[in-house]
């Protein structure tokens, strides 16, 4: 995932939290906010201390960034997205994490509509 695809500042996170819409599944909570002023999506990741110590949280965030990079062509542009990691994700393998993330993004309507129809056919 490229640096330009990341939310970094607290103000950016707070804007998405306050003005955005949320959707969730068992592993992730997704907040989305449409932002027409940008060419690509931006994602911020939040993992609380409930996930584990700093090493565990950073490992989960690295794996999550890898999962996002694998599906970034399916994510709708012009969105600011925050992914909140729920406890239990730290034990998931990458493939399961990616599937669960894709499910949560679909629930949040952050995936391009064309890809949703193609996945149902295949």
Automatic annotation (TrEMBL):
Gene3D superfamilies per record: 3.30.230.10
Spans traversing the lipid bilayer: none
Gene Ontology MF annotations: 3'-tRNA processing endoribonuclease activity; ribonuclease P activity; tRNA binding
The keyword Nuclease is assigned to this record: yes
GO CC entries: ribonuclease P complex
Any one GO BP annotation for this protein: tRNA 5'-leader removal
Matches recorded under InterPro entries: Ribosomal_Su5_D2-typ_SF, Ribsml_uS5_D2-typ_fold_subgr, RNase_P, RNase_P_CS
A Pfam family annotated for this UniProt entry: Ribonuclease_P
Catalysed conversion reaction: Endonucleolytic cleavage of RNA, removing 5'-extranucleotides from tRNA precursor
Principal EC category: hydrolase
Entries under SUPFAM superfamilies matching the protein: Ribosomal protein S5 domain 2-like (SSF54211)
UniProtKB keywords: Endonuclease, Hydrolase, Nuclease, RNA-binding, tRNA processing
EC number from the UniProt entry: 3.1.26.5
Family: Belongs to the RnpA family.
Quaternary structure annotation from Swiss-Prot or TrEMBL: Consists of a catalytic RNA component (M1 or rnpB) and a protein subunit.
Function description: RNaseP catalyzes the removal of the 5'-leader sequence from pre-tRNA to produce the mature 5'-terminus. It can also cleave other RNA substrates such as 4.5S RNA. The protein component plays an auxiliary but essential role in vivo by binding to the 5'-leader sequence and broadening the substrate specificity of the ribozyme.
Protein name: Ribonuclease P protein component
Species of provenance: Brevibacillus laterosporus (Bacillus laterosporus)
Gene name as annotated: rnpA
